[in-house]
Design a protein that fits this description.
Number of helices: 3
Oligomer: single chain
Distance between the termini: 45 Å
Number of strands: 36
Shape: globular
Strand content: 35-45%
Helix content: under 10%
């Protein structure tokens, strides 16, 4: 289906579009319609050059985060501190300068018991103005919101019926979550205010009793799904929301949704919460992440077991190319765009860098000889070292005497100044318990 994606200019100040999103954002600032100044263009060119040089300068500083299970999610809150979430449902801050860690209380509604699920915290996101931190709650179906910089517990969001997998801040007070229940939800945190620290119970903050007002209960403003009124609404065609990407220039959301047969990327108009386009992914196995290239303003990348698939929202209903993974048997676990440079975290513990302009991986020296006998340059990679592994009965039964299991890069992110790269994850094989974390400076 061909459809022109909307732009903000269709909804000027003072003109009601009739949408919930437009109503909530009536007082927000529209993008500057003026063309970029000459110095701005030069600045972007310099930034792109620096970003392509940075990977060659980075050196790993391993971080000891104790005996936690795999790190699934991370985000920087300052130039030194990173928030991480783990498979064992721990949420804490890591100081990348001295390696110290500080636990963040998990938010649990009064009367609900801890989930026995081991799915963990799959998503963490800091708002654009660094006023709020959002993450999965003690219950993996809940949204937890904290005030920064003090990590003040503010609210618990209850609106999903299955695990939260991803979230995107649309503004500093509006957030969209996606979950395994095939639904997405829009939340507003603008009315939340800091309060004295609420009482704790066993490391969990509750919102009951005399301090119930301290940790508020949030409900979604809007819930939307591609299954409504669709022939795919049967359980066998359930499309779990695996990952989200937001184009702030066009106010469109891309949702990567998976089922037993493959994956589809859906594009949504956030003025109306109506799907405009859907694109089926050509590689069916393990589509786990989608990322938007803000520099281009129209390109997306989707990571699967064997490839990165590229989409261009100017070419609706089709993909525009793919990039074969250099670790095809281990899968692509995380992606990040930065100034036309795509960083790719793999299940083999590597981070590779792909230049979107030259359409080549950054090279890191000489490699193997090709069919012509000429030496081919090897791709530059940052390789994870260290980490912790629990050598339990599962390890002794299936992995003892074998090479050390690889640590997958489940998450990686640049610092606010874009001078450091945080990488984290843990052992790729199912059933193994361990972690890896490092900062590249």
């Amino acid at each position: 289906m061909s459809c022109e994606l909307p732009s903000l200019q269709h909804h000027p100040h003072g003109e009601s579009s009739g949408s919930t999103f437009d109503y909530l954002e009536r007082r927000s600032c529209l993008p500057d319609p003026r063309p970029p100044r000459r110095w701005e263009s030069s600045s972007r060119g310099l930034g792109a050059a620096v970003s392509r040089r940075l990977p060659y300068l980075l050196r790993e500083r391993p971080l000891d985060i104790g005996k936690t299970d795999k790190v699934f999610a991370s985000d920087w809150i300052t130039e030194e501190d990173v928030v991480v979430g783990t498979k064992c449902n721990k949420l804490f801050v890591v100081n990348t300068e001295n390696g110290s860690t500080v636990d963040i209380p998990r938010l649990q509604p009064e009367g609900s018991s801890n989930s026995t699920s081991s799915c963990g915290i799959h998503t963490i996101s800091v708002s654009s103005e660094r006023q709020y931190l959002a993450a999965g709650g003690a219950d993996p179906t809940h949204l937890a919101v904290y005030g920064l910089p003090e990590m003040q517990p503010l609210a618990i969001g209850e609106g999903h019926t299955d695990w939260l997998f991803d979230m995107q801040w649309i503004t500093d007070t509006l957030l969209i979550t996606g979950a395994r229940d095939s639904k997405m939800a829009l939340w507003s945190v603008g009315s939340l205010e800091s309060a004295p620290p609420p009482r704790e119970r066993g490391g969990e903050v509750t919102r009951s009793g005399p301090m119930a007002e301290d940790v508020q209960k949030l409900e979604p403003i809007v819930k939307f799904s591609n299954l409504a009124g669709s022939s795919r609404s049967s359980p066998s065609h359930c499309e779990r929301v695996r990952s989200l990407a937001y184009n702030r220039q066009k106010y469109t959301l891309a949702s990567l949704q998976t089922n037993a047969c493959g994956a589809i990327v859906h594009f949504w108009d956030l003025f109306s919460f109506i799907q405009t386009v859907e694109v089926e992914m050509p590689f069916c196995a393990e589509n786990v992440c989608i990322e938007f290239d803000e520099e281009s303003g129209h390109m997306y990348g989707v990571g699967s077991r064997s490839h990165v698939t590229f989409l261009d929202d100017r070419v609706p209903a089709s993909t525009v190319g793919s990039l074969k993974s250099l670790d095809p048997d281990c899968g692509i676990r995380s992606l990040k765009f930065h100034h036309n440079l795509l960083s790719i975290g793999t299940g083999a513990g590597h981070v590779y860098f792909y230049d979107m302009r030259t359409r080549h991986y950054l090279s890191g020296g000489s490699g193997t000889s090709g069919s012509s006998g000429q030496q081919k340059p090897a791709a530059l990679s940052l390789t994870a070292t260290g980490g912790w592994l629990r050598r339990d009965e599962t390890y002794r039964s299936f992995f003892s005497g074998m090479p050390e299991p690889l640590n997958a890069i489940y998450t990686h992110c640049y610092s606010p100044a874009r001078t450091k790269l945080f990488t984290a994850g843990g052992p790729l094989p199912l059933g193994l318990h361990g972690n890896y974390a490092g900062v590249w400076v």
